[in-house]
Amino acid sequence: MDLTLDIATKPLSGTLSLAGDKSLAHRAALFAALAEGTSSVSNYPDSGVTRAMRRALATLGVPSTLEDGILRIEGRGYKPFSPSGTADCGNSGTTIRLLAGAIAGTRSSAILDGSAGLRKRPMDRIAEPLAQMGAKVTTAAGCAPLAFAPAQTLAPLSYALPVASAQVKSCLILAALGASGISHISEPGPSRDHTELMLRSMGAHIVSRRLEVEVHPLSRPLAPLSGTLPGDISSAAFLFAAAAIVPGSCVTVANLGVNPTRTGILDVLSAMGCTVICANRRKVFGEDVADVTVSSPATLRAVEISGDLVVRSIDEFPAIAAAAAFATGVTTVRDAKELRYKESDRISAICRNLAALGAEVAELDDGFTIAGLTISGGTAKAGGDHRLAMSMALTGLRVHTTVQDAEILAESFPGFAQTIDSLR
Ligand code: S3P
Questions:
Q1: Please, what are the domains in the chain?
Q2: Protein residue with least CA distance to atom 13, ligand 1
Q3: Is residue 235 in contact with ligand 1, taking CB distance under 6 Å?
Q4: Does position 341 have pLDDT exceeding 90, yes or no?
Q5: What is the DSSP annotation of 167-195?
Q6: Using one digit for the tens of pLDDT, what is the confidence trace for 243-282?
Q7: What is the pTM of this model?
Q8: Ligand 1 atom closest to the CA of 165, numbered from 1
Q9: C-beta 395 within 6 A of ligand 1
Q10: Which of 196, 314, 390 to mutate for ligand 1's pocket (most ligand atoms within 8 Å of CB)?
Q11: What is the pLDDT of residue 285?
Q12: With 90 as the cut, is the pLDDT of residue 284 above it?
């Protein structure tokens, strides 16, 4: 499907709520499966990647229902899964990596596989530390499919992640719950800490210190979950970027997850000159939630992004790139090599697509530069990456742009174009 957004002829404005955060949704479904009792989670998003987690869990013997946005799961406890076949994780890296940890920890037999795109993404980053614990896991040359056989026992882990990754950290935390002693996992940057917060709220003994987690083996069953997921800041990022690039705009997203490990996008837009206001702050599931308003500046400025801010914005570079294309000056992103291992090689996909739209860009080994206001429009390709599809579509608010194969955006934000239109 081709997607062409109409050029904005007036400012975008409005207040809306979004479906629940995908990172929280993946964890809620999996952790509910590992709990004892019935979990019920509202505002549960129904998108390609969350369906992948639910489908994989059903194959592993834990079905769920999703009606009127309410997910219900009967937990089986932290014990071996009973798969009826190969669990298909679709396009979802979070699904395969988190499930891998739970399968290793519960000492289950299972095979995890996924789409052609998922099969290209690195799995040695979880398989190696799991093997250090004694887990029996084989990969296809470091990639999916992953095959697990039950280990006799799992040793506690002491491991320093080479790159900050919440998927890897969460995989290892889930496995460490089933180890024979206390594990320590550290990372070089502040990746999202949803796993630690949610498991702790369910009764797990996990101690977080700056950039290190201490995980104690489970000594009692995980309690079931009950609550409402906050909206997804990684979806809101596209609406805020839209507000940034259409002069005079002001967009509010109510009930938005604003965990500090996820709010890099707000800091970036603020550095670009936008006004960002977080009101009505509160806690849900141990997570920070607020109503967030972003207004466009008189002049949108280029920005330099590196270090921890990259980790705190890791999924938001497609949205940031769209904003950068309409900013005054050259935006520079460094320390972001991890973007090469997402749903696409996002460094090269962002540069290739913006160049196809006439923008002056330079691809760096660990990032890119974008010269703002050089973009003229044309045809972009989603290339199997939901966030690339939305990023390139956003440029259409200012220059005529068509995105090919844009249907992939339903992996994370079904109704994206209609939501943008509701702000016109
Ligand atoms: C996620 C972690 C991030 C992110 C992904 C979701 C998660 O990946 O890119 O979309 O839910 O844990 P890494 O932790 O591998 O960087």
A1: 13-20+230-421 (3.65.10.10), 22-227 (3.65.10.10)
A2: 165
A3: no
A4: yes
A5: HHHHHHHHHHTTSSS-EEEE-SS----HH
A6: 999 999 999 999 999 999 999 999 999 999 999 999 999 9
A7: 0.97
A8: 14
A9: no
A10: 314
A11: 81
A12: no
